[in-house]
Amino acid sequence: MDLFGGTISSLEKGLSYATLKNKAITQNIANVDTPNYKTKEVSFKDVLNDAKQATIPAYRTDARHFDFKINIGSSGVYSNENFRSRANGNAVNMDAEQAKLAENTIYYNALIDRVSSKFSTLNNVVKGGR
Amino acid sequence: MSIFHSMNTTASALTTQRLRMDVISSNIANVDTTRAKQVNGEWEPYRKKSVTLKEQEGQFSNFLNMAIGKTKKNGVGNGVKVSSIKEDTETPFKLMYDPSHPDANAEGYVQMSNVDVLKEMVDLISASRSYEANITAFNANKNMLTKALEIGKG
């Protein structure tokens, strides 16, 4: 039986989603004064799909060959092209971005909390409850 | 993909906003400058300078991912950069009547710089608010990273 189960890898996917989302929000806040900048958003669905099939199918000469594993890059990021809120074509809504930033930080902290608690549970098991 | 990617993004924004504030300070400082540059042997007053910003498109991996079809749009990007500092050649110089001024023309008018202090102040406040917003983003990011270091300690 697998000692670590699927929990930690699920949490890991959540963390990498939160990291990517943090990047997008940071980028939006950084470009608040850039003319014609369009807000970037992260789609959870795309990131999840990516995490599920994060391999490139390789050309196999033997059925036992592995596929290439790829890192989760910045896929699932898309720009809101049709939205503009100001005269210079910039679409960054600072209030919304700050709210998203706070929300994302709390989400990230919650996941970290879960990972830590999972490890301490396992630690407890390994020590036999002593 | 570095964990400090977001911090670099914020840092680029902080640098940019600080540069904007520097340029605005220079504009305000030179509001009364009548001899900034010599053009054809004549002194020309100071021209208002403004900063134009551009999104930094990101590094090689973004474009690679786009090329192999992994990403639809180009990725998150790398922050913001200054594309140019331009002089305002559209707004005319202000004319002030002062025949005793050494730079006065035959009719007694002096050409003054085309800086509008009110506009500069508005821009200054806007730049400093943007700076603060980026500081908030930086702190949030720092807290997240610090928290990540706590994995497995509890």
UniProtKB/TrEMBL annotation, chain A:
One of its GO terms (cellular component) is bacterial-type flagellum basal body, rod. Keywords: Bacterial flagellum, Cell projection, Cilium, Flagellum. GO terms for biological process: bacterial-type flagellum-dependent cell motility. InterPro entries: FlgB. It is found in: Bacterial flagellum basal body. Belongs to the flagella basal body rod proteins family. Structural component of flagellum, the bacterial motility apparatus. Part of the rod structure of flagellar basal body. The basal body constitutes a major portion of the flagellar organelle and consists of a number of rings mounted on a central rod. NCBIfam families: FlgB (TIGR01396). This is Flagellar basal body rod protein FlgB.
TrEMBL record, chain B:
It is found in: Bacterial flagellum basal body. The keyword Lipoprotein does not apply. Pfam families: Flg_bb_rod (PF00460), Flg_bbr_C (PF06429). Coiled coil: none annotated. Residues 107-150 form the Flagellar basal-body/hook protein C-terminal domain. The keyword Oxidoreductase does not apply. InterPro entries: Flag_bb_rod_N, Flagellar_basal_body_rod_CS, Flg_bb/hook_C_dom, FlgC. Belongs to the flagella basal body rod proteins family. The basal body constitutes a major portion of the flagellar organelle and consists of four rings (L,P,S, and M) mounted on a central rod. The rod consists of about 26 subunits of FlgG in the distal portion, and FlgB, FlgC and FlgF are thought to build up the proximal portion of the rod with about 6 subunits each. This is Flagellar basal-body rod protein FlgC. The gene is flgC.
